[in-house]
Design a protein that fits this description.
5-stranded mixed sheet, 4-stranded antiparallel sheet, 12 helices, alpha+beta, 12% strand, 4 domains
Amino acid sequence: MTRPIPLRKRLLVRLLITSVLIAICSVAATAWLAVETTTRAIQEEQGQVLTEDMDILRQLSGYAATHRDWSGVGKTVRALSDRTGRRIALTAPDRTPIADSETRNTALPPRAAAVVDPLHTDTFTEPGAQRTGIDPRAVGPYLLPPAERKRVRQLAEKRRHCFSENYVDTSITQLPSGRSVLTDEAGTVDGGEVPTPCADGRLNTPTATEEKALAELTTYAKGCLGGVDLPFPAPFTVAAGLKVKPLPTRNFGADGADGATDEQLADRNKKAQECVDRARRRQLDPYVAPAAELFLGRGDSAVPHFDMSAANKAKVTGVAGLVLALTVAVTVLVATRLVRPLRALTHAAQQPPEQHVRVPVTTQDETGILAVAFNDLADRRERMEAQRKAMVADIAHELRTPLTNIRGWLEVTRDGVVDPDPELLASLHDEAVVLQRVIDDLQDLAAADAGTLRLHREPVRADELLEQVVAAHRVAAEAAGVRLHTAVAGSTGSHGSDGSEDSSRSDGSRGSDGTPWLDADPVRMRQALGNLVSNAIRHTPADGTIALTFRRQDDEVVFDVADTGSGIAPEDLPSVFERFWRAEKSRSRRTGGSGLGLSIVRQLVTAHGGTVTVTSELGTGSVFTLRLPDAR
């Protein structure tokens, strides 16, 4: 009794574990991919919303920088709302409505999205950055009138032409104040270093409007610059037309230095810059709209976010559990259908060999093919077992008969009942010869089965081989009254049993160049053909004929041994080359042979790389055909 298979090693358990692991990995991978995709989508959406928010803030800040109040901002607010599809509202710091894209009394969000103040923002150069700065579009008193704009434009054109003559490519850009400046590809004003022929200083010289504004800025800044000695009359300049900044604030003494350290000078410059910024805000304040709070969205709109609540966790867990349950159910169903025929095969294989159990074939897949192969194996094993038993019985019978005769005659001779005359000794010798022949046949078959049958190959002429076989069996054929002859296939000439040659032989006869040759063992080939001739003589009645013919067909030499004997029944043809097979079971060994001759023929021909077949018809005769490789 075989030991039971451990649970962990059973095929069903392995398939189940594999499917569960695959399902878990699939669920985890799908969940991770979904979270990553959703997070990325939310981030992209939030980034897009942030970009829209900064654009709204930039445009409203630009409106405030170029208007003294918010009286006309409603049109701009509605246009931005239509373009972005969002609610936009502006209120004073005390929540007094200024402009709203929605109807009145619509609730505002709990907090303002931003404060629109052109004097404390930098949304123009860095959208989204909330820093203490002044919107460059807030120019106030620095706004040039048309005449000054035209004159500055002409100066810019003249300088650009000068730059071009000195191989410096620049372009003209107009600033919010109306001043024209030169920029190169890198955005550097005036192309970095100005060529000497072009350095006339006229383009960067403040206009009358700018000088007036700078003088006003100087007045505002004197109150906070305390102690810093500023040059006069222009303590401030338009630095490259981008922003106003103080001139160097270093106070030099008689020896060329004031004795201040670098840190003190840096601190002094920082304070001076802060003073200038405050002065500019004071100067620009009357020209810009007051600060306002910006609201985006409705008061009842929730901020989108990823909520992994208990309900969501329960949903995810439920779906994962359902997927695992379905995976387990399908795996169990499929594995059970797969394991059931395997168990049937295992049970059948564990039965006693003599029962030859078969298994039902229920599928057409690999398992079904395995079941068919198992049943075929059982059929072959049953046939081989039956043949083995029959062979043992036949061998016992073949050996028992001559041994019984020898033993009986020796006993009666020993007891003095019979004298050991020459006739008795000849009979005992014949029985010994029969035993020797049976033993030799069995030895040849055993050597062929084991692959140790030795062949001594040499070139052999087909016609000479047949003539030698005929000569060896001529006496037996004459005694049986059977005519034995050879012929080339397709010719009318023949050799009779006496060896005489017909004059009408074809070109394939001995001595012609067309005679086929074999690379074979002549002794074994005579033995194979001799067995066929002996078998034909036993089964051919008197006045019958046995013909041995040969021919070349493609790359083979074909031998035919045809007789006019009793023939073989169609149902017996598949068994003629089996060991100890006899067409008539009742025939004795002396009339029916040992039943090993045809088996030896098949083994010898196979050893030479050939085949042997038989065709027969009851009452007409049989034809045994040997096909061997041509020596060419």
